[in-house]
Design brief:
The chain is mainly alpha-helical. 80% of the residues lie in helices and 0% in strands.
Amino acid sequence: MYPKTIKLILALGIIAWAIYQFIEGYIGNGIALIFLSLIFIFLYFRNELILLAFFRLRKQDFAGTQKWLLRIKNPESALTTKQVGYYHYLFGIITSQTNLTQAEKYFKKALSIGLSMDHDLAMAKLSLAGIVMQKRRKREATTLLNEAKKLDKQGMLAEQIKMMQQQMKKI
């Protein structure tokens, strides 16, 4: 993992080299170098280790996800603000399998820092509502479920929200 500043310096250096190639008349080389610099700019906004952790999570490999996340040393300084939110969000998903109290802390921290996509916010609030519901805090769970329902514009979590509302009626 390269630090944020190194990624930007590499991108600027490659862009400068691309401009030099354009001036020398090597248009194809310049275009290829612009595309190469776009990779470093993309990795500035989307951390490569978090992307690899998401790929592991998609395969339900929680140990592999945790391995990739633990490679990030000092996430507050190495990542952008939204990436830190996703870092805590992923740790919340991992620890929700074993330790609900710790998972609640991770989800709350991820929500306080912020996530960039609405469906990720809805999923975090839905997971947090499930944890809170298991701890018998019905009012807080209801609030979180309603917020998750508002954020779920595409209806991907509608079934899970209905199921949790049915379970809440039994409490």
